Amino acid sequence: MHFIETALPGAYIIEPERVEDWRGFFARTWCRRRFAAHGLVANLVQCSISFNHRKGTLRGMHYQAAPRAEAKLVRCTAGAIDDVIIDLRPESSTFKQHQSVLLTAENRRMLYVPPGFAHGFQTLANDTEVFYQMSEFYAPEHSKGVRWDDPAFAIRWPPGKRYILERDQQYPDFTA
After folding, report:
1. Pairing assessment for the beta strands 72-78 and 163-164 based on DSSP bridges
2. Residue 138 is among the residues annotated as catalytic for this protein
């Protein structure tokens, strides 16, 4: 696996290292030792998938608050997404900054989202599936979000029609 640190400290793009032959290829997508060696949370306890029928589906921006803040490893297994993270760690030099990463079934890249970050995505194709691995069990009482179009973050989403859950449209303006 190749670990590429993003502009937001602690967040990584991870590219599987392929071993190819005439049959195709083999690639490791998870190794606790490699993640720990990079200082990343290496205790993943839960996996989920998100299936999205329509291009333009926007999910986010979600996070779990302390003491249940979670790391996520996100991969697009079908279709394509514009995956976005926001650094919500007040002590961070990149507080309130965001990063966008193209994840597709073809590029097989993954995005490591550290605790203290909000996460969301917009689908770029119909019938898109996203696979998540998380370091904390889902705790609804700690589930939070910030609005996808909050001017505090100035995220530039892909153009076109969007399909957004009402809850994700109604988070209040972010205040630090």
Report:
1. unpaired
2. no
